[in-house]
Structures are given as structure tokens and as C-alpha cells.
Amino acid sequence: MSIAEFAHVTRRYGDLVAVDDVSLVFDPGVIVGLLGPNGAGKTSLLSLLQGLRRPTAGRASLFGGDPADPRTRRRLGTTPQETALPDTLRVGEVLDYVGGHFADRVPTSELAAEFGLTELLRRQCGSLSGGQKRRVAVALAFVGRPRLVLLDEPTTGLDVDARRTLWAAIRRQHEAGATVVVTSHYLEEIEALAQRVVVLAEGRVLADDTVASVVARVGVSRVELASDDATSIARLPGVVRHEQDDDIEVLTVTDADSFVRALVRTGADFRGLTVRGATLEEAFLALTEASVAAGAVAGATPAPFGRDLS
């Protein structure tokens, strides 16, 4: 049985369509990464599972019930995008207060040790840095031993070391039985955590598969070279993205072999050519930019791929 489900869900805010006919099933025991540019619909989807919003059309279910029912949400943990903690309360008091709402809670000392908060327990929340507050907010999502945890940009404001420490804690919670849905702008975060990735753009699902499969099915490669003729090279067939890194041209291409053959035929001067497979970030950018380009064509509809959950 699925732990959460969207069935042809649409959510509108006036004339704005934030979620557009989305069908997804979240199975128990998986870490799912939600990727997409700002305004893609990630936070709106999470708000529907939290019962904060209702679908304009379609159905959202949580543990087989209505997300708006408080009894259904007892097994749900969340960390919102914005962190708001009471300034005058100590960290330990906040953990105790929130934990007191659950019959089977994680003891404060255990939770603090898990998320690296032991040294902060007697600190007032108002004295914490933004990164420390973020760690407290993520820990609170796990205090009630939830079956499903929704993490919206969980490591915003954390440095690299703090992010990796938090990733390790999230993995341990997952191994202990929590299903996790995480949104992030750090694509390395999704690569490090997720077993499944859902790519969203303009409220629609573009891809839904494993990280490796999304990268492979996009089929893009990264080409780096130096050239004085970068403009014409960037116009070659199959180039979906072009950036400059100092004096190096960085191109994302759909077929590396065809691109190199076309490059040689142009007679353009180039040097230092390197080719490698795409990362999740490059695949993600190729997907979303292709979707935007398709949407600019009158009547065009970007076609989702991956698992068919309709």
C-alpha cells in the first residue's frame, strides 16, 4: 500500500496553475527527491500532503486518508522552507514541547545527539545562527517517529560539512523506517540521498525514475573545450546548454559523438577537448530548459517520462 498519493491533482491560485494534473505514488521505505526550478510546484505539492491546501481538482491522500484530517497527520513529520522558532525558548524546551504532542516520541537527548544539537540544548533559539536553526527544524520533523517526512529545502543556510552531517542523520532515520520526500536546490544533495527523483517544471512531472535512469534517459553529455569561435560552436546541432567557465566553453550536448564529428567538420579552432557523462544537475537543466522551450511553442505540451502513474 502506498504511503501517499496524488491522483490527477491540479492546484490553482487564481489564474496561476501551480500543480498541473500530477499523478504520483510514494511507496514506503524510499527517499524521494523533488527537483525543479523556483515555481515548479514542489512546495505546493508538499502543502497538499500536509493538508495546508486542498486540490482544485483531483485527489491527494496520506496514509490512505485525507491529509486535512489531524488524525491522519499524526504519522507525518515536516520541515517547512522557512524556519520559525520561538526566540526565548531554549532548544531543549522546543524539542520537549513538540515531542510532548506524540505518544511515542524520540527522547530529547537521543534526538539532539542524532542531529548534532547536544551542545545547543541550553541555548535560546533567538541566539542561534540560521544554520543551527535549520538543524533544529529538521530534527523536529523526526521527533514523533514519523512514517513519512517532508523536508522542504532542509539544508538551506548550512555549510558543506553541516550539510553532510545532516545527510548522514537523514539516512539513519530512513534506515530506521522513515520514508522521506526532500526538495532541494543542491543537486548533489539529491544524488547523495535519493533513490528516486521526480523532476518538475511548470507544475508538471517531466521525469520520475532513479537518479541514474534520469541521467541516462536524458542522454546528455558535458563537453569542455577552449576556442576563439565559441559562438558558432554553440550553434551546432545537439547543443542544449552553453556556459563559459573562465576561458573554457562548457556545452551540454545530446549526442557527444555527433557533436565532435560536427565540430571537426566546421574547421573551427579548438583545444583541450574533454567529454564526460552528465551529472544529475546537467540532466536536470537539460530537462527543464527543454520543457520551457517546448512550452513556448503554441499548443506544445512537454511529455513526462519515467513511470506511468496515471
What is the topological layout?
Elements: E1 4-13, E2 16-26, E3 31-35, H1 42-49, E4 57-62, E5 76-79, H2 91-99, H3 108-114, H4 130-141, E6 148-152, H5 160-175, E7 179-183, H6 187-193, E8 196-201, E9 204-209, H7 211-218, E10 221-226, H8 230-234, E11 239-245, E12 248-253, H9 256-266, E13 271-277, H10 280-295, E14 305-306
Parallel strand pairs: 3-7, 3-8, 5-6, 6-7, 9-14
Antiparallel strand pairs: 1-2, 1-4, 8-9, 10-12, 10-13, 11-12
Task: Please characterize this protein's 3D structure.
Helix 2 packs across helix 3 and helix 7 crosses helix 10. With 310 residues, this protein is α/β, with parallel strands linked by helices. Strands 5-6-7-3-8-9-14 form a 7-stranded mixed beta sheet, with helices on both faces. It folds into 2 domains: 4-214, Rossmann fold (3-Layer(aba) Sandwich); 216-306, Alpha-Beta Plaits (2-Layer Sandwich). The protein has helices at residues 42-49, 91-99, 108-114, 130-141, 160-175, 187-193, 211-218, 230-234, 256-266, 280-295, and strands at 4-13, 16-26, 31-35, 57-62, 76-79, 148-152, 179-183, 196-201, 204-209, 221-226, 239-245, 248-253, 271-277, 305-306. It is globular, with a radius of gyration of 22 Å.
